[in-house]
Specification:
Helix content is about 70%, strand content about 0%. The protein contains ten helices and no strands. The N and C termini lie far apart (about 85 Å).
Length: about 200
């Protein structure tokens, strides 16, 4: 009874916050509603026994992605009027995408229900005494080790590419020479003069 009440509470808040994320006119409010949706989705995962995914939602999405969105939206001067100017023009295309996504979801649910017996028969047995995180780590670092390392390599290449694109050579920009700045003497940077009274400063 308590689990059912918690499920309906979390599900209701998730759906309501998702709707408010889209319907809010203020981008900052949209990000705050999105954070609330992530927290309640983590609660749903806890009810399912997937505490690792719940912690990932809180740590990665709420602690990093949503906060990054919030800072970017607060620092940038977003003109919401210009963003909503072409809403009516792109409404048919958005409706078409929504219909395609809904058809894919229905097709996936139908395929899952059709093959649920075979999938349950092929599923590996799980020891209830082993924690969820331990069993997930065992599978991740044994059976899917090369895929995990490949994903890490892709992220490393993306990070290096972002650094290279940020620090690329630009024309017309004076680069900073740290060694020349360190070797510069105080007497070369300043000049002591006796300024006469009533005369301007000569540069």
């Amino acid at each position: 009874m308590i689990q059912a009440a918690a499920f309906y509470l979390f599900a209701t808040v998730v759906v309501a916050s998702a709707v408010l994320t889209i319907a809010s006119r203020n981008p900052v409010h949209s990000v705050l509603w999105l954070i609330l949706a992530f927290f309640n989705a983590a609660g749903l995962f806890l009810l399912l026994g997937a505490e690792f995914i719940a912690m990932l939602l809180v740590i990665v999405y709420v602690g990093a992605v949503a906060v990054l969105f919030l800072f970017v939206v607060m620092m940038l001067d977003v003109d919401t009027a210009s963003m909503r100017a072409g809403f009516a023009r792109y409404l048919p295309f958005g409706a078409l995408l929504a219909i395609v996504l809904l058809a894919e979801i229905v097709f996936a649910i139908a395929a899952w229900n059709a093959g649920s017996i075979e999938l349950a028969a092929k599923a590996a047995p799980v020891d209830p005494r082993v924690p969820n995180i331990q069993s997930l780590g065992t599978v991740l670092y044994t059976r899917y080790l090369y895929i995990f390392e490949g994903a890490g390599l892709v992220l490393l290449v993306a990070m290096i590419g972002a650094i290279v694109l940020t620090h690329r050579t630009r024309s017309g920009v004076r680069p900073q020479n740290v060694s020349r700045q360190i070797q510069r003497r105080p007497e070369d940077a300043t000049r002591n003069i006796s300024q006469p009274v009533g005369e301007g400063v000569t540069l």
